[in-house]
Amino acid sequence: MKFKSIILIALTFISTVCLAQKLKYKDIYPYLEAKNYKQGIPKLKAYLTDIENQSEANPNYQMGIWLHERFNNLDGSNSAMLVQVGDSAIVFLTKAKSLIDDKEVKKQKDYYQEFVRRDLRSGKFAIKVSDVHLDIEKRIAAIRQRKE
């Protein structure tokens, strides 16, 4: 009887610990980087539902990129879906643009490796916020142009 009680307590403790593990963006990002959206997007959506994660720049940026790609892959036959996905992509991209600044890029440079360029003045490789903002602006402009 004591053995069963001990096992029951141990299983309860283990299940509580497993459920209490917090979802971390650094665990989600490899799926998004590899464009494995089937596994990455559900985790990203769960991550962004937490109120304290909604003001993080790169998760919003990655959600905007996924929605932009989804928008581009939709055919024009379902215009309501096209508008909905396009508007959602614009919301996430706009929010990401407002959150991405020099501090964010320096702190999270691993997430912005696609924007590494050689600085002509210093010769060093660096990430410029203006490059990230330009990419976001181009995506938003492309969505708006197709919606029209």
Description:
- Helices cover 70% and strands 4% of the residues.
- A two-stranded antiparallel sheet has the order 1-2.
- It has 148 residues and is mostly helical.
- It is built from seven helices and two strands; from the N terminus they run ααααααββα.
- About 4% of the residues have low confidence.
- Helix 4 packs antiparallel against helix 5, helix 4 runs parallel beside helix 7 and helix 5 packs antiparallel against helix 7.
- Strand 1 and strand 2 form a beta hairpin.
Uncertain stretches: 15-20
Content-based structural category: mainly alpha
Instruction: Classify the helix fraction into a percent range.
Output: over 70%
Question: How would you describe the shape?
Answer: flat
Question: What characterizes the major β-sheet?
Answer: 2 strands, antiparallel
Spatial extent as radius of gyration: 20 Å
Number of helices: 7
What is the ordering of alpha helices and beta strands? HHHHHHEEH
Mind sketching the topology for me?
Blueprint: H1 2-20, H2 25-33, H3 37-49, H4 57-73, H5 79-99, H6 102-107, E1 116-118, E2 125-127, H7 129-147
Antiparallel strand pairs: 1-2
Helix pairs in contact: 2-3, 3-4, 4-5, 4-7, 5-7
Structural descriptors:
148 residues, mainly alpha, 2 strands
Sum this structure up briefly.
With 148 residues, this protein is mainly α.
